[in-house]
Amino acid sequence: FSPLTKVKLINELNEREADLGVNEKVSWHSEYRDSAWIFVGGFPYELTEGDLLCVFSQYVPTASLWGGVGAHTAY
Question: pTM score, two decimals?
Answer without folding.
Answer: 0.41
